[in-house]
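Input for the complex:
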Amino acid sequence: MSEIVENRMNTKPNEDLKIRIDRPWSWKRFFFQWEWLLVIVLLLVILINSLLSPYFLSLNTFISTPATFLDKAFIVFPMMFVIMLGRIDISVASTVAVSAVIMAVSYNMGLPMPLAILLCLITGSLGGAINGLLMVKFKELSFVIITLSTMIIYRGIAYILLGDQASGGFPKWFSFLGWGSILGVPFIVICFIITAVIFGLLLHKTSFGRIVSGMGFNKMTCEYSGIKVNRVTMIVFTLAGLMSGVTAVFLTSRMGSTRPNVAMGYELEVIAMVALGGVSTSGGVGRIAGPILAVYIIGYLSYGMGLANLQAPVVLVVIGLLLIFSVLAIRIRFSVSRKNSAV
Amino acid sequence: MVKGKILFTENLRELGLLIFIILLGLLIQLRNPAFLSLSNITSLLTNTSILGILAVGMMLVLITRGIDLSIGAIIAFSGMVSALTVARFPEMPPLLCLAEGMAIGTIIGMLNGILVARFNVLPIIATLGMMNIVRGMTYVVSGGKWVSSYQMSTGFKAIATGKIFGINSLIVTAVFVFVIAGYFVNHTRTGRQIYAVGSNPEAAEVSGLPKRTLVFLAYAIMGGLAGLAGVLWVAKFASAQGDTAAGYELQVIATCILGGVSIAGGVGKLSGLILGTILFGLLNNALPLINVSPFWQMGIQGITIMAAVIANVMVKRNTDRLALRRRLI
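Predicted:
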């Protein structure tokens, strides 16, 4: 019953998309897009930052500064897929914690570092796959309760393994992942660009991306069209877990050690980035450029607030406000364009 | 006979929960004889009453198909603000402090309600954003400092440590909230309408119920109760910090789920909720008593929630299948 209601609710953006596809291309509409608004906001943030500090405007800011905030950006892409499916995964931060802790513990128990990194990625994927499996096997349960309970369980496992201690002592080359650079470009930035290209192609150039979008609009239609809905759900959630593992590797490399309470609140930042990037939380709608811009906006925003000596709590407030306002703005945008199409 | 049967199957869940609680209690009693002493029971109930107060509000929100992740932050904020006022004006009567906390909580809850009911923002997104805003505000108003015991008047601390009719006032407050909530959800028109909106929003709206107002009301009540809990919390622990009750919303949601409140909306009984609260309090109270490391607590809680949720689904599938089979014959 709730399935039907959900589908009926999801038809609204669907009509919207149809109108957008049918209309011919024009310059006016090309510039009247969410992404351009984000570009303007990003420029504003950079402008304000350069007013705050005379040292901000330099080549360094645009090449090496992103390394300070890109660790969580890897989760943004799979989270975008998850949100496009009309769901949310709030267990990602706990997945980061449990994979980082398992990597550190297994390394300190004598496993070679490359294998420990592999184990970290496997743990992450497994965490995501468990979410997906529960989602597929227990369709009655909402995504909220599943990812909420795995969020507690994963964090709990991290605490069971490490108590309140920190674990570290990694080999020297491991810190290269987070701190090193190739030809002046930080390694983490290169990885981010590669990941962005892969996910961009996956979303916009493969049938998988179309299917994810379609499932967000109307899951039942997809199921009746012979799409393996369960498999797609599993893959998307496993990807979310895998990228949480990647984030765990980079985060641990940057911090040099790990603790069970690492990556607290990452889920909020990631969801805020995706929502600010113009991905509709009712599912289906989303383009890869938006979240990438949003990553840089939020990243430079918190960096600039650091320059201005504002404390971390203020950053919390601003990110929370950004999340709510971007979701509101997207709602209002949809209702406006629907009104226009009716005339 | 038929009526008795219906009553029995309707309360099957609560009965199972009760049996589970009794079995668990016996097991713990065997491991540690100090468990069933009067002082331990009192401390268990005292520690659980704040959880119970919050669970009542969360039940209303869950019934409307929503969720509220911001309550941990509301507790911290309202607690911090009332502690700061008490530190400034030590002569302030305790009841006024309670009113202040509830007012702050209600305002934040109303903001949540406006976002969810008026602007159709997903509850999880709206309250996640609000959680961070309010948590950040807590640090901002306190300047990152704590308000400690010596800055609070004895009257303020007596809110949580005092006794009414020989029973700890926290327990009395929780019972008071439960009684009012019992009357509200079972015997008032608005209470029943909240269930109607939760079990079928479209039908409720078509039948002329003020859907948005009712959803708004649920969030406002949740906020008010969280504000009340914030004052009680700070009075009980005699210290207000920026990270008070961080992550407590998860325990409250878990309590509701253990108590049989469905996250899909429309389902939830106060009797189940009370049992769920007691079970959760029992787990929190008993694990240290039988020498379980505190680091295991989070994992055990998570697995308990997961098991309760999945068991619920399994039972429901089974009863549905049985009903179907009976219809075929």
